[in-house]
Design a protein that fits this description.
The complex is a heterodimer of chains A (450) and B (332).
Chain A: H1 2-14, H2 19-37, H3 59-81, H4 89-108, H5 112-121, H6 123-133, H7 139-153, H8 155-168, H9 185-198, H10 207-214, H11 217-227, H12 229-242, H13 248-270, H14 274-294, H15 298-329, H16 334-343, H17 345-359, H18 366-380, H19 384-406, H20 424-442
Helix pairs in contact in A: 1-2, 2-3, 3-4, 3-11, 3-15, 3-20, 4-5, 4-6, 6-7, 7-9, 7-10, 8-9, 9-12, 10-14, 11-15, 13-14, 13-19, 14-15, 14-18, 15-16, 15-17, 15-18, 15-20, 16-17, 17-19
Chain B: H1 2-21, H2 26-45, H3 52-82, H4 85-100, H5 107-113, H6 118-135, H7 143-165, H8 170-191, H9 193-216, H10 225-228, H11 234-245, H12 251-265, H13 269-294, H14 308-331
Helix pairs in contact in B: 1-2, 1-6, 2-3, 2-6, 3-4, 3-5, 4-7, 5-8, 6-8, 6-9, 7-8, 7-13, 8-9, 8-12, 9-12, 11-13, 11-14, 12-13, 12-14
Catalytic activity (chain B): a ubiquinone + NADH + 5 H(+)(in) = a ubiquinol + NAD(+) + 4 H(+)(out)
Membrane topology (chain B): Multi-pass membrane protein
Main location (chain B): mitochondrion
Chain lengths: 450, 332
């Protein structure tokens, strides 16, 4: 609760600042809030500082809260450098701050009903961001896709918590274990469908590439950085609430995820649009989180959360780079973006680092997550290793292909770039995304303290 | 003078409708319904620039209401004369469904609404319907009629948003929105009159805001909504659209959630599926409307840029849609 009060008070103070200073002030506020949220990080169990009537936080919640605050700050930082945000920039500040406020509450609430309300409410600011600052007329269908998939998929969850409210009198998520013998596929499907769509899990991923392509850079940063993680967090809470164990439903979901990871990597190979490529790579990476979560092992849980948090920094980093690069050449086509890399060679270096991080090259924490998730899945059925091997090959292939296309030197036509300098201010968002990855690397066993 | 006569006839119609709520006999309910409808005719016909089209719309409305009343009266007389409860209930069910404009007897709604003025759309689409819904007998003695009435309401809930998608004119859009909400009202009546009164109040206030904003911009076609809707009302319109989309924590989500909860308590699976289906289609429709309304080629005045009255109305609309949901949930 203290964090929310601090956020509200800071926002109130920022309102009285000069419009030019508000952007810097808000970014600094996000930094302060992120630091404040570290207070909730404790040992295993519930954080004593967070305990109240409405809210309850443990290590999973607190890591997501800190990630939300950090990513939303990065989103504002990167958007302030972009020239494609038309209209009043302050509206963007308000929407992002509101979205962050809703997200933080979503990760803190202790009832399923409030979690659902906040889960759906986060769609409103994001849809507004895409609708106002989206690139093309196709942003309307992309918003409709996103809304229909998310809201439609979570209708069964609405029924479930309504049933809890009606029959049990409460949908309190903590310290309640509702065990019944009548639990079956329909129930588990209802519990997890909306959250799997949010992640997004194969085959419910169709909305993500459309949303990413139409969203501005800041919107993509938030969507990839934190909004997808809502699904993973929700799955954790639902498993905790209903004492989910390894069941046939979970094995089916894991099977789809394994296929989804290979599918995502294959689709990445075929893409010429950088944002769609990053979107499909998100589908691949989230598949590992799903595998880890549904394996119902501590190792799997640790692997899943390492992936969720690491991906929360790497994917926005890729979007930041694609935003800077595409602004230089006014195109999202990978082949055209190579002109920008040639004009600003430092971009080539950053692309290399982010692509390697995305691929899972050590010392990036993604490799730890992938190893742990693979261990969990192979423990169930060893021959799955063949599909996972295909994924590793394909992911290496698309990463290598992307880097080669971006940095190719042979060009017949004279290059056209709109500016050929990338300053420290442009790259500041990227630097702030590198640092937390190092933290995750050194503290990767944080989620193991159960 | 024209405005005064409109107000007088409207008040008389309202009085008849309120009196209808206190009638214990179905015959007097029928009388008051017809009296209310008759007083609405001059109100609907009143227009500062009379055109043939207004009378066409009112004529359609009057003929349909008259036919519906004939069916209801026929049913009453039949029951009184030969005590044929089945046929009587069937005729009354048909009559009330026709008057309310429920699927599949909704064909007149759009045809009439297109020719009404916005005040008429609000009164016929929201005001009059809530009184009629509150007074309709639920045909519990004839299960076939009760099921028919129920399924017509379910059909209205599901069909309405689909038809809204195809609406070209704003008034046609409002007509099908009215069909959808009529379905919700009738479903609510199966759970108790208290939910009908609560939903009616919320629906009428929300529709009043929506209709007033559309009237102030003289909006005709959906595709021109962005340019015709006044800039100082756009924020309020966005809130209404988000509310009608069914996004929590806006008001319309809370009201639909209450009906969903009641249907769950009654183990009414069909109602739950219908509510969810309707909500999903409604969401897509209103996202589309939201986009159209907020897109404009001309730079417009923004939030709080109108007169004091306009700003007050805009803020009231925002507060109503944003915060009344929580209030309603706490009170209910």
């Amino acid at each position: 609760m203290g964090l929310l009060i601090l956020m509200a008070l800071n926002c109130f103070c920022v309102m009285f600042l000069n419009k030019k200073d508000q952007t810097v002030a808000v970014v600094n506020c996000f930094g302060v809030w992120s630091a404040f949220s570290l207070m909730y990080w404790g040992g295993s169990g519930v954080s004593r500082e967070s305990l109240s009537e409405l809210f309850c936080v443990d290590i999973y919640s607190s890591s997501m809260i800190s990630l939300s605050l950090w990513i939303c700050g990065i989103s504002i930082l990167v958007s302030s450098c972009m020239t494609n945000l038309r209209g009043v920039f302050n509206s963007y500040l308000i929407l992002v701050t509101l979205l962050c406020f809703l997200l933080v509450q979503c990760f803190m609430v202790n009832t399923l009903a409030m979690f659902y309300v906040l889960f759906e409410s986060t769609l409103i600011p994001l849809a507004s961001i895409i609708g106002i600052w989206g690139g093309q007329i196709e942003r309307v269908p992309s918003i409709q896709y996103m809304a229909a998939y998310t809201v439609g998929g979570s209708f069964p969850l609405l029924l479930i918590f309504t049933t809890m409210e009606v029959h049990a009198g409460s949908s309190f998520m903590w310290f309640i274990s509702m065990k019944t013998t009548s639990l079956n596929w329909l129930f588990w499907g209802g519990c997890f469908l909306g959250l799997l769509i949010k992640l997004p899990a194969f085959p419910f991923h169709a909305w993500l590439p459309k949303a990413h392509v139409q969203a501005p850079v800041g919107g993509s940063v938030i969507l990839a950085g934190i909004l997808l993680k809502l699904g993973g967090y929700g799955i954790t809470r639902m498993m905790m609430l209903f004492s989910y164990t390894l069941e046939s439903f979970g094995i089916l979901v894991m099977s789809f995820s394994i296929v989804g990871s290979v599918y995502g990597a294959f689709m990445c190979l075929r893409q010429s649009d950088i944002k769609k490529l990053i979107a499909y790579s998100s589908v691949s990476h989230m598949a590992f989180s799903i595998m880890g979560l549904f394996s119902c092992t501590e190792v799997g849980m640790v692997g899943a959360y390492i992936m969720l948090v690491s991906h929360g920094f790497i994917s926005p980093g890729l979007f930041v780079l694609s935003g800077i690069n595409s602004e230089m050449v006014h195109s999202r086509k990978i082949k055209v973006m190579s002109d920008g890399v040639r004009a600003a060679p430092s971009l080539g270096f950053f692309w290399l680092v982010m692509i390697m991080a995305n691929l899972g090259v050590p010392p990036c924490p993604v490799i730890i997550s992938e190893v742990l998730s693979v261990v969990c899945v192979i423990a169930l059925y060893p021959w799955v290793f063949v599909l996972l091997l295909m994924y590793f090959i394909l992911s290496g292939a698309y990463s290598f292909s992307l880097y080669c296309q971006l940095t190719r030197t042979k060009k017949k036509i004279k290059m056209k770039v709109f500016f050929n300098e990338v300053t420290l201010k442009d790259m500041s968002a990227l630097y702030f995304l590198f640092y937390p990855l190092a933290e995750v690397l050194f503290k990767w066993d944080l989620w193991a303290m159960m | 003078m024209q405005m005064l006569s409109m107000i007088v006839f409207l008040v008389m119609s309202l009085m008849a409708s309120i009196a209808m709520l206190f009638m214990s006999s179905i015959f007097w309910v029928w009388v008051m319904t017809d009296v209310g409808t008759l007083f609405l005719i001059p109100f609907l016909s009143a227009e500062t620039r009379p055109k043939k089209s207004w009378f066409t719309g009112v004529a359609t409305y009057f003929v349909i209401q008259f036919f519906g009343s004939v069916m209801i009266l026929g049913g009453i007389i039949l029951d009184w004369a030969i005590e044929a409860a089945d046929w009587s209930s069937a005729m009354m069910c048909f009559g009330f469904a026709l008057k309310l404009g429920m699927v599949p007897l909704h064909f007149w709604v759009s045809r009439s609404f297109v020719y009404f003025h916005y005040g008429g759309i609000f009164i016929v689409g929201a005001g009059q319907k809530v009184f009629v819904v509150a007074c309709v007998p639920l045909f519990s003695d004839v299960p076939l009629c009760a099921y028919a009435y129920y399924f017509m309401a379910v059909g209205s809930m599901v069909y309405g948003p689909i038809a809204m998608f195809n609406a070209i004119a704003v008034k046609s859009f409002l007509a099908y929105s009215s069909v959808t909400h009529t379905g919700f009202l009738v479903i609510g009546s199966f759970f108790g009159l208290h939910i009908v009164y609560a939903y009616s109040f919320i629906y009428c206030v929300s529709m009043a805001f929506l209709v007033f904003m559309l009237w102030s911009g003289d909006c005709k076609f959906m595709k021109n909504l962005g340019s015709e809707l006044p800039g100082y009302y756009k924020t309020g319109f966005v809130c209404i659209a988000m509310s009608f989309s069914g996004f929590p924590p806006f008001l319309d989500f809370c009201t639909k959630f209450v009906i969903l909860q009641l249907s769950m308590e009654q183990d009414s699976t069909i109602t739950m599926v219908a509510i969810l289906t309707s909500s999903l289609i409604n969401l897509i429709v209103w996202v589309w409307v939201l986009f159209i309304a907020t897109s404009s080629e001309v730079k417009e005045p923004g939030f709080l840029s109108g007169t004091t009255g306009q700003n007050v109305l805009n803020m009231s609309c925002i507060i109503w849609n944003l915060f009344m949901g929580a209030g309603f949930s706490m009170l209910y």
